Amino acid sequence: MSFIFSLESAFMENSHPENAAPMAKYMRNHFAFFGIKTTERRRLFKEIWKQNKAEVTENCRTVALQLFAKKQREFHYCAIEILIKELKQNYLKDDIHLIKKLITENSWWDSVDTISKYILGEYLLEFPDETDAVVKLFSNADNMWLNRSVILFQLGYKKKTNFELLKSICLKQQSSSEFFIQKAIGWALREYAKTDSEAVKEFVAVTAFKPLSRKEALKNT
């Protein structure tokens, strides 16, 4: 695809090896980087996207998967940003399989959190009848990132948040020893506290959360 070829060429031409190592270290060396910082990456990416708009729009899922299969982390960010824009109001019910793949491959907090809020969260707004099934599937999965994603998918919902559902998900994971699960519980509850702080305080008061979850949940109440 000309879009991917052009993007790869631009990233290679604008790589910054002096930045690549620190960026990889920040991500615990899980991924390679070109060393292109976010502002510059987005500028290059948007220019090439604009030049190849029809190709990307018509093949957005395929383009995203091909980008996600590449080694450098900058490609993964581009894949996610494409799907956020191109799939909004255009999701298919079967896209849950794509979403699951994105969460479980090249997994780390930076990708999973963005996918959870802006892709999984949007998908379930468009297909609310799928919420219970997806939450059950992901929360029961033997994959910490899927577990985290359903804790976080309502982050942008505000008054649309189903607090009873959020509570049930948090209770299911309350004893987890995983740092990323404890942190997600606290983050999700802290975010909902902006809408209803008393409800969050009451819930935390009667629930045996791990100290990290409790601290994060009550940080701004």
Characterize this entry briefly:
The protein is built from 14 helices and no strands. The chain has 221 residues and is mainly α. InterPro entries: ARM-type_fold, DNA_alkylation.
List the topology elements:
Layout: H1 2-13, H2 17-26, H3 38-51, H4 53-58, H5 60-68, H6 73-87, H7 95-104, H8 109-126, H9 131-139, H10 144-152, H11 163-173, H12 179-193, H13 197-205, H14 211-217
InterPro entries: ARM-type_fold, DNA_alkylation
Protein name: DNA-7-methylguanine glycosylase
- Average pLDDT: 97
Label the CATH architecture of the domain at 2-154: Alpha Horseshoe
Instruction: Give the H and E element order.
Output: HHHHHHHHHHHHHH
- Spatial shape: globular
Amount of helix: 55-70%
- The radius of gyration is 19 Å
For this structure, the CATH topology of the domain at 2-154 is Leucine-rich Repeat Variant
Share in β-strands: under 5%
Structural class based on helices, strands and sheet pairing: mainly alpha
Profile the largest sheet.
Answer: none
Low-pLDDT stretches are none
DSSP strand tally: 0
N-C termini distance: 50 Å
CATH class of the domain at 2-154: Mainly Alpha
Helix run count: 14
